[in-house]
Amino acid sequence: MSPLLDIRSLSVTFRGEQAVRAVEDVSFSLAEGEVAALVGESGCGKSVVAHAVAGLLPPGAAVSGAVLFQGRDLLALAEREMEAVRGAGIGVVFQNPSLALNPLHTVGRQVAEPLRVHRGEKKEQAFAAACRALAALGFADAPGLMRLYPSQCSGGMNQRVVTAASTILDPPLLIADEPTKGLDRDRVADVAGELGRLVAERGTALLLITHDIPVALALADRVAVMYAGEIVETGPAREVLGDPAHPYTRGLVASLPENGFVPIPGASPSPVDPPAGCRFHPRCSFCVDRCRTERPALAAAGRRLVRCRRCP
Amino acid sequence: MTGLLAKGIRYAVSLLVVVVLTFALPRAMPGDPVMNIIGEDVSVSPATLDAIRAEIGLDRPVTEQFASYLWSLLHLDLGYSYHLSAPVFDLLVARMGWTLLFTGIAIVVGAAIGILAGTVAGWRPETKRSRAVTLAALAVSCTPPYFLALLFLSFFSFRLGLFPFKGLYDEATFGSVVHHLFLPVLVLTLFAAARNTLIMRGSVVQEKGSLYALYARARGLSDRAVLFGHVLKNASLPIVTLIALDFGFIFSGALFVEIVFSLNGMGTLIYDAVLGRDYPLLQGAFLVIAVMVVCANLAADLVYLLVDPRIRRQGQ
Amino acid sequence: MKTIPAFLSCLAVLILAASLVPAACAAGDGETMTRAELSAAILPYMEATYCGENVVHLAPIEIRTAACRFLGLPEPPENTEALRIATPNVVKATNFYDDYYVGIFTHLSNLPMMRMDANGHLVGLTADRYEVSSDNTQWTFYLKDDLFWSDGRRVTPEDVAFSFEYLGEHEPDAGWIKETLVGTTVSDEENAVTFTFNKPYTTINLEFATYNILPKHIWEHISDPNEYTEAGPFVGDGPYYLEEIDLNAAKMTFRKNHHWQGKQPAFGTVEVHWFANDDAAALALEAGDVDTYYRYANSYPYAGVQRLKDTGEFNTLEKTSIGLTFLAPNLKRAPMNDLSFREALADAINYDELVAVDTLGYGTVPNRGFVPPGMDYFADTPALAYDPVAARQILHDAGYLDTDGNGIVECNGTDLDLDLLVRTGFERDGQLIEEYLEDVGIGATVHQVDSTTWFSLKDEYDYDLTVTGTTPWGMLMHAGWGTGYFDSRRTGKGVLHNLDDPVYLALCDNILATSDQAQLERYAGEMQAYFDDNLPAIALYWKKDVIPYNRAYTGWYYEPLFGIYDIETFLNVRAASG
Amino acid sequence: MTDLNRWGVGLLAVFVVMALVPQWIAPYGPKERSAPYQDPSADHLLGTDDIGDDILTELIYSARISLLIGFAAAAVATAIGLAIGLVAGYCRGAIDELLMGATDVVLIIPKIPLIIVLAAFLRPGFGLLVLVLGFLGWESIARIVRSKTLQVRETGFVMSARCMGFSPAWIMGSEILPNIFQVLVPKFMLATAAAMISEASLSFLGLSDPTMKSWGMMISFAFSKGGFIREMWWWYLPPGLCITLCIVAVAAIGFSFGGDDAEARIE
Fold this sequence. Notes:
The complex is a heterotetramer of chains A (312), B (316), C (578) and D (267). Chain A has 312 residues and is an alpha/beta fold.
């Protein structure tokens, strides 16, 4: 069976005064109903991958490779065809739901919008459906909520509103872009729980973009760790995060509070001028000479792939 | 609530400052304050002069003078123009109608055009068309209003003979008024549009990068739908305040346009007052314009209150 | 006496009605009326309507209209052809009494006592003739007896007396009337009014050429004319009355006064269109929107004359103006009070260039005698001439030396730096004169000022030199021949009052004390000789007034005081034959 | 917008050279005259005006006053705005409220009418014009300086300077000022543009000093001395274009520094 989403050697470059290679040669796939996580620090390119999949990159971005969704290459689609995929085929949930909602439109209107755009439903019909969707997410007074503006709702409410709006068309794939960023622990658990429930109930595949390893561990079947625009390690979530192979993954896991809060020395490299050889070598304690000159390839190590010469 | 209150206080203070300015100007400026109140280049009988001297009572304490000044303001008494032999308030009211008419049209049409052009220019700022629009708007807003008016007058009226040379009308008919006001309104509209275009462009550039716009796209909305359904409305909000602030500017532009097109509005009234040193009229005009600008700002705040739920929430 | 006009008018009705009969037949579709029937029908009606206690003049057109209305016939068509005048003299208020230019334009509708003819002589307008007492204190004006207000009332001596008393009361600029007028006597029998002054006045006839006569029965009810603003119509006694002042359309409309008994004008209305800028006025001319151009005390802009001629639609009147532009030294300050310094000034100026720049050839280099040739008793004095070498020599001989060799002469040890006060409109002359002076070693700094500032600075004598202009009226006022500008005993807005030489003052007094023409001619000659010898002011150029007019009309008339805005223009202009 | 920036700098450089060394560029001396009202020719590329001055020469010499007034007034405005913004942002609290309240008040008062009233009373020469234009153009500068100051004052190096007991004046001058420079430059340019427009407008109204030859004054003369009626576009168009181009150049530099912030307005 072909996967629901198959990303093949995706590279994204932002043209500007200086070209920024944000994502390089990323390959990754997701089966129907599967939950996968892209993990990494801010600026590692994981959100760019998500945006590339959803076709949300700004006009200045040069994308190469292929993104096969349900067998179709999304990168080859015309803008109009892509519009049909967004929302109906792929739903996206952003971090900071209060900013993702238009402050000048009511909650109801924004939840109903996909119905009206994709199915051309009449206003009353769409609003009724939106109301049901909100109620299904546990809002007691869904009709009242419909009339509120995002500024009148709490962050948690907006989070669920966004979820409702993104899933109202039942897309087979949901991309959650840093859904837990900036939230306190309790809320993180809420959000994670909700996403998990949603995926479980509807059988939606979920591509989770996060820097939050516990969340990834809790939700994801499979995980890919990104560093400086590349995937450095990928495999079953429990294996990769429970017993990391790549020095970077190890560092990430070691920096978790429960593991002693040991930070990785140094800082992420500039995407304009990434280091030669292994991109992690300047921060790597296992670095040898070859690491500085030769770029390692992703190599299979059991059920996972690792981009490191030193560790299979 | 506190936000609104602070705004209210600011407007009240603005008004007060304007009133104090108009009160203080004739007293603080060089020359005889009585002559400053009457204006120069005008013949007044000694009896009138004495009457004015007694009325303003320069020997009385300033507070007392100010109180009586306020008192007369409250009765819409802005003084008397000895040049035009009429109360300043009456003169201004008589002239204001026309000026408000064509500035009003210019502001509304200019805002509409500006919002549209600015949206186009801001949505894809890197295209040739956007650059052209931006550059044109920049050029227009960098031209002194009177010069543009002169160019239009000399080209369309003088050279092509398409429009009349002076006046608001020949016969007081609708067609005649439209014919006479077309060019002045066009010039003012261009200015309003150019300024709004630049603002709107910046606003759109900012708003289209915001998360809600991206999220709207993520829900499958087309570019057009995102632009017109979401970004446009949000980006237009700052325009509301700017139109209010610009009201004063457009009004000043109207002054020059009236002079160039020989229109009998408030601008020519002020111009004549400048040439004839008709100080009471000048101060009255300044006061009235300032009050109108403050009112426009107040109105803008109210519009904001209606349009922007965030502020409404604050107000509750 | 009072029944005569009523009788006459009834007679007129009959005659007119009779003349209308054919038309009535044509219109009435076969229904005929005899002349006798007609007169029998109209007479009682006319009597009832018009011949009551108030005796009012009936204009023929009114009678005819009334008759037509009575008979149910179509009313005679009004002559709607308009004579259109463009002017840059902007009317700013609908105040008939107070607005300066409304005052000038209404000379057409509210005739002054006197007017000036093309030769510069004063002739009667409201007045038929006048008599002056031998001591010049009592003036009696005998009025024309065929003048009627546009509401049909006769113009009476009471109207005249009232007008001047009212002016003296309410118009600060006419305050001299209040101060010097002892009394007015009215004689209905002789249709005359006598003014008695508390001192000799030889120029009342000239003064009275500028004040409008007002209908007493209207204005006696208006307590403060300065606050009286109304769009119109205003009752007038000229060939036209002022129907409307429309500020929004920027025009005044005069309509034919049907009670006017004199020569009948060719146009039904006269429109005065004002333009905020000269170019718009010029283009309105080119476009054929207006027929002529009038600007008080000024010519059509010389820069536009050729263009207008090129259209082929316009001819021009070119008349020597009695106004001029001059350079006035502040005679109360050194070194301007030094005649040799003034001589040097006179030699330093390049008159030819000024004439070329300012008048584009429509002017001439003036004489030392100041007074232009258009004035009565012009005396030919030597012409001014540009001679920088002579100027430097004079300065040197008079002791103004450039000891530090920086090109500027010193006065009391410091470089001369004269304050050159330049009024609005003379910017270019100021700029050029500054250069001429520096060229001969006289330092000067231009201070460009608007009229208001100029008034206050010259009243405080806070300047060294100033460039200003005269108006025709200014040349005539006071003792005439420009004397009014310099006599130190006078005050006034445009007046320099900086000359207190007893010789000059005596000369002025002599002129003011006589109304004898031979004596006047002698004094005028002496005055021009005085200007020549003493150079209290230096004329920069004499100029022509150029007035373009639509060549489709002829009969234009120009007089020195108000140019073509003279009643003769309005009575005479009509379509050119062919 | 970097293109615009480059163009702006280039254009402005041309005008600045015109202002600095007109005698090197102008074909004639400022006081050389020939026949008036000449059409453009090889001798006079833009013809001559009503007194026979070479229009091209005049155009070049006029750059000085136009630019000088613009920049001087902007300097005054910037100085005031900087002082008020710095103090408000640094001191915060009641002083901030007061100063920003005052700024808002000034923002609302219509400028051109007030300038006209003031100019009518004062009859300005160069210095006064600069002061009046400067005193009425500082409010947006004050605002942006304040908000930037608020940001900068929380940064580490300012904190440490405060801890080391440096005086507020010293901190404002040497720690904060250099950091708000990048927002100040565009504001300064925009204030220059605004002052230039105002100057040109006042010249037209006859409220400026006619002995100060500026582009605005040239248009004013062309208007009053028959340039329009004679269709001498070579007389009135070049100074108008110079004004517009110069202001566009100045504003473009301002824009490109300041990005597209909505506050970047020209009054």
